[in-house]
User: Fold this.
Amino acid sequence: MADHVRIKKLGDLMVEVSPEIPVDMVNVTVSGITADSRQVTPGMLFVAVRGGSSDGHHYIQEAVKRGCVAVLAAEDVPAIDCDVPVITVPDTRSAMGYLAAAFYDFPAREMTMIGITGTNGKTTSSYILEKFIQEAGGIPGVVGTINIRYLDVILEAMLTTPEAMEIHRQLRLMADHGVTHVVMEVSSHGLEQERVNAILFDVALFTNLSRDHLDFHGSMESYFAAKKRLFANHMNDTGTAVVVLSQSVTGGNGDWGKRLAEFLLEKTRLKVVTCGIQYGDVRALKYSFSLEGTSAEIISNDTVFSIETPLVGAFNLENVLGCITCGLVLGYGMESMQPTLATLESIPGRLERVKVVQDDNEPVLRDVFVDYAHTPEALQHVLQTIRSLNPDRLVVVFGCGGDRDRGKRPLMGEVAGRLSDVCLVTSDNPRSESPQEILNDIETGLQGISAVKIDSTRLSRNPSLRGYDIIESRRDAIKRAIEVSRPGDVILICGKGHESYQIKRSGRIFFDDRQEARKQLERIRQAA
Assistant:
């Protein structure tokens, strides 16, 4: 069933926002809702929203000229004189989610809603849960960082959590196509900006929390408060919160999973189920890791079962435990989840191995992985994972994005310098910033641990060489890493993962870490 033109009465749209609107406005017909005056077409409701750089109230007259039939404005603005009805509410941004839900007939209520929040692991978890739902006979839809997908529909995602109108439009399409379960990555920005208003989740998973987005939130406490909103404000009364208790932190102010579980048990009526490698209602008794995957024995309610998965490392085992726990909450048996975990395909840009086609008798060229890690803790986790597998050398290529939290740059430099043998610092998405200034910030962290700057071209001649080099061109840095490595080394390319672009001051250009690495591996193969 295709998306189609919808017509709603203003009174019906406002039922959960401002139910007592003037009688003469109740039957005004609305063909669409937007907060962007440039997108107004005749028949639309224009919602004046205050943004970070502009205020929609300044564009009301433009929206009227373009044909809007009514305006929703904030109560604290001066009286507005225009030719269409104006309704005022305390918070127009908050109202958008409820308006969007009503416009699309509250589609979330027709499906089982599963939300995932946390700094890292959301995308990996969404792929695992999608497979669990399919194996159990459900029809999953996913709203996530990489894309929006259901059945044979795949749409590129512009935001991890889309704006309210787009979320509910996609949910309406999913419901109309028979989707039974929706897995949604719920970002802190999406929660803070109330994009998921009018959605109540049946299950919500908290993966972890570490430094990220502090340019937006200002502090870790504010960041944590944004994440808590998913559980405090957006859960069904009968919903279940699944909280991962990370093994890397066992107490103190940074133990965000433990703090969240305690908050939920004290302040809400939600059912709370915890999980983790060492702690939780569902946990690992034994586990082992290799470059080929993970094996573990899991205990839940005194029942022990074994799992195997091609996903690598402790952080991925935490993701798996979170998803197993969600699956158990949803009523899935381990007999369906075990084979699904064993046959998982690599998840785009999440410790994704890069290979070229080889004959069976050809030696492995290099072990090359691409990962999305772009925070200090995520980088630490993935480097520790590879380090624990004892490669001859661990070579990491990474950078930091421009126009984002500058404070994490030296932290990432310190982590990379401490845990890798060779660190090639390069450009990520510099955006409007000077790439060199970003590299300088990262180098500060390397210098802080007395890392040695080296000429990386010498690495193939001197395998004992350790240190860092700075190569601004990401293409050249990837080429250098693979050129100077040897069989037995592991090359880890971090920061962009699944992304197929770079954002520079001049705009967006095509660039895919996996494609670049594959080119270099093919060159080595042909030269052998």
About this structure: Residues 8-103 form a domain with the Udp-n-acetylmuramoylalanyl-d-glutamate--2,6- Diaminopimelate Ligase; Chain: A, domain 1 fold (CATH 3.40.1390.10). Residues 314-329 form the longest helix (16 residues). The CA atoms of residues 112 and 181 lie 5 Å apart. Residues 249-253 have pLDDT under 50 and may be disordered.
